[in-house]
Amino acid sequence: MKNIFLLLYVFIWSEIIDKSNCLKKVHSLEKVTSTFGLSEGPHWDIRSQKLYFVQIWKQHICSYDPATGKVFHAFIKNGPVSLVTTIEGQPGKLLATSGTDIVIVTWNGESNVENPEIKLLVSIEKNKKGYRFNDGKIDALGRLWAGTMCQIDQKNIPDVGSLYLIDGKLKPKRKISSVSISNGLEWSKDNKMFYFIDTTTNKVFAYDFDLPSGNISNRRVIIDVKEKGFQGFPDGMTIDTEGNLWVALVHGSKLIRVDPKNGKILKVIDFPTKMVTSVAFGGADFDILYVTTASYDFPNKIVDSKGGQIFALKNLGVKGYPPHSFKLSK
Hints:
Layout: H1 2-24, E1 28-31, E2 39-45, E3 50-55, E4 60-65, E5 70-75, E6 81-86, E7 93-98, E8 101-106, E9 118-123, E10 131-138, E11 144-152, E12 155-156, E13 161-166, E14 172-179, E15 182-187, E16 193-198, E17 203-210, E18 215-224, E19 233-239, E20 245-250, E21 254-258, E22 265-270, E23 275-282, E24 288-294, E25 296-298, E26 301-302, E27 310-314
Antiparallel strand pairs: 1-27, 2-3, 3-4, 4-5, 6-7, 7-8, 8-9, 10-11, 11-12, 11-13, 13-14, 15-16, 16-17, 17-18, 19-20, 20-21, 21-22, 23-24, 24-27, 25-26
């Protein structure tokens, strides 16, 4: 009996010590690339184990290989590039938004290319002055959700953009109108909730979501970052396997973790640069949070000369989900 109590005592204390050590663990913030311009849209490629991201005004799709530390780029002459993602069943090809176009780019991310082959899939709001796509993401059925915005004379024109749903048949459907800067998108694990950011509102919104139809309804505010006392604006966003959102605060030098059920701030991470633009989980176990930053809003409007690096957040104690790829109909 004494041996049983002794074993129980040892087990309880080992559990306490393990939990104590976990609480003592501190995340690490590692700069993994040199300085770029307006870096955005990180997407982890499961097949190649590379991180893809874009430099909007330089019209670059970039690849970062953690195994070698090397970064390569492909210049897309079509126009500003705001989004890049993989295509199901098509290795060596990427889906990208360039200007008001959605294109397929043939590039393997393993060398610098100044004029890769591109194929136009569909154009939205074409020939409207100042319009371009901004952020977007692929849902669980392989459909692209991507939003437009308008910038004229280095100013954002409010309430003229839209969020679109584009399926594999390339038939765009407008889901949200009167958007100023379409940004972070995400879904809950059960696909019952859709989360969306319109940056200039300072808010993260939640919608009821029906996966088969793609219908969204019952909009409400999860969090208003200004009401919480934060500087800057909500930008890119992702979700972890515990159901909490990670929101980048551009012009705010911070990344925040938010419980979408109640808007509670669970964690605040400070960055050594002002323009924190977006986030994506990556790595073999999806336990590394890659964070893009920027040095400017517009090429001749430097906000923070130290910005533009890609950072890797490690030892967070949480993981993310594998990203979806676009499903193009045959």
